[in-house]
Amino acid sequence: xxxxxxNVSKKELIYPLMNVAFQKSVFKEDSEEHxxxxxxxxxxxxxxxxxxxxxxxxxxxxxxxxxxANQQLLQRCMPKNECVDFxxxxxxxxxxxxxxxxxxxxxxxxxxxxxxEDATQLRVVYSNVFNVLLQxxxxxxxxxxxxxxxxxxNEIVLATFSWVKLHSNCKELHGLEFKEIIETSNWTNFCKLxxxxxxxxxxxxxxxxxxxxxxxxxxxxxxxxxxxxxxxNSSPAEIANLYELALSHSRFLDVILVPFQFKVKKSxxxxxxxxxxxxxxxxxxxxxxxxLGSYGATLTETNRFILALIxxxxxxxxxxxxxxxFLWGDxxxxxxxxxxxxxxxxxxxxxxNAEVFAxxxxx
Length: 363
Known about the structure:
URB1; Nucleolar pre-ribosomal-associated protein 1; mainly alpha
């Protein structure tokens, strides 16, 4: 530590050492000497950290490789008022890097903690960060092969989850409306791209005989954001559009009628359930055969979501009794001719008891 003050300008040497020092908890938060030392280091590297955020493609290698030092210096040394000012900025981003995202989230978290005594400012900061995260998503969702960028995707998803969690633990945010988010093209574009890409399953690069499940996080995070941004039974038109967009996807039936455990199916059904709770008008009797065909009559999370969705249809006035006695799974798929051309599908939904009994297993 004694060598640092006289060698701060030797960035390629000092910064990696700082990274190791932070990893080993060398710097004590209650030490005035350490605070002064870190302040000196921060002032030396401040411009480089700013450039890493604003122009990540031109950031020096030391900032790309030593993310712990980046985060710790900002957390301990960046003035609170500067964090708040940055968190309130309406940024326009054109690229995304993991080290950039981690730096920004560190600033946002510090700004959030600094604003807890000012509810108005806190709400501005909280909402604005979602607009930044949506920009990151939209940049990434436009790449040709998202599976090659799945590490970046997971980092954005984790950052978004952590930011959403702040809402439930902060009473100052309760009742917050998110009009400044849901009325933007950022949100609209994200929803469309996330649905399109999340449902459009691909074969696994490692095993072509299996489907790749990694992009299910897009549907999962969409459900989380919809649940936060919209009140139940608020019936917004964009929710109806999203529901229809999901059902009309070319791979929708392929995914929802998968008979085995599949993360994309689980996330899709969960999203449909969240959307249905926000806008009852999306529910139609003609959806019931599909839901019955997707149901496996087990206690898996996926099947519980499907059952909850069917129950929500019934409670919302959809006459599902017309389909009694109920068939499910493969039997329902065959009975209702799901997946075939609409011209060939059965118009009579009535089933008989023998078909139902045939599904029951003695065990």
